[in-house]
Amino acid sequence: MKSRFPICLLMTTLLLVINSCKQKEILVPEQAKDIAGEWRVIKALRNGVDITTLTDFTQFRIKFTTDLQYTIENPLPFVVSKNGSYALDDPKYPFRITFRQAGTGAPVSTSFTYPVVAGKRNMSFSFSPGCAANTYLYTLERVNP
Which pTM was predicted? Predict the structure, then answer.
């Protein structure tokens, strides 16, 4: 019996040392996605075909503000054509964005992604403006991050 006590004590000490060496996981709370700023189209697909070089997308800009407003410069076929307000379905993990154009009653909602590509934050919108036979996918990049 005496020979078991030192072994149990040694095992307990060893377990305590091993357990104390484990790194503690630190959880950082997810921050709300910040889309405020000026964005431009860097890629455009219509029905899966790249049309980026077929249309001048260089002048189009959409500006999102921190007070949930947006403005459009040089409109193109897009989710909306007039300035207004916007809302994300979830500030931390957005999957949909809803636009409410000034002077119109019905909001327009579309799928939305917010990936980081080559170290830059992008936004991608999928939508059908008017004709359901045409589906667009725009990838936007912040003009001055």
Answer: 0.74
Count how many residues are written for the chain. Answer: 145
Strand partners, 127: 136
Nearest to 75 by CA among 89, 85, 87, 60: 60
Cα–Cα distance between 96 and 26 in angstroms, integer? 30
Cα 10 to chain center, whole Å?
52
Q: Please name the fold of domain 37-142.
A: Lipocalin (2.40.128)
Residue-level pLDDT at 31:
73
Q: pLDDT grade, residue 19 (50/70/90)?
A: low
Domain ranges of the chain: 37-142
pLDDT of residue 37: 95
